[in-house]
Amino acid sequence: MTDQLTLDLPHRPALGRDDFWVTNSNAQAVDLIDRWPQWPGSALLLIGPRGSGKSHLAEVWRKASGASEIKADQLERGKVPDLLSNGAVVVEDAPGDRLDETALFHLLNLANEQASHVLITTRDVPNLWNVALPDLLTRLNALTLARLAEPDDILLRAVLVKLFTDRQIVVGEGVVEYLVVRMERALGAADDLVAELDARALAEKVAITRPFTAKVLKERGL
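Given the sequence above, the corresponding structure tokens read:
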């Protein structure tokens, strides 16, 4: 018998402020984002590991500020004025594969001159970006850091429940607790696990129970 054919249909995650749970692991970053437009300066670095909630929190701020958005490796000097036309911009995933350092420097300078705001999301502090332009590195190192730490148990539980809810899946508390104890301490890992559990359960025509979850995690070496 062949495996059940499953359709890879997209699900629509919720990205509202009410869906972002505040715990010790993210409170400092959330506080800084919520202070806008009374930031310490015109730009802020939102820093944290993969899946820590950077994109979610940046989207919350984008909606509040009306900011435009661009990937760091798509930034070009000619785009800078238009990016700041609304008075705010999110630069995602810095430094990216190809950072136009002159463009970023120009963006930060123009934002400061115009009293606009720039939110830059990144996994690493600027000293690890291999920046060649000394003036840009100096400017980046002077920015306020909004730090997202590795998620704690409270945040992992909340995010797992949200991820299952986004996919319209109802699971027991035992499933969530089993995952929290054994999974990688990263929200990106939670997303991957929920996606795999969903796909496997559809393929095997079973509910996502604790024994089923244990089987899937065992096959993943967890």
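The domain at 153-219 is CATH 1.10.8 (Helicase, Ruva Protein; domain 3). Try to locate this feature in the token string yourself.
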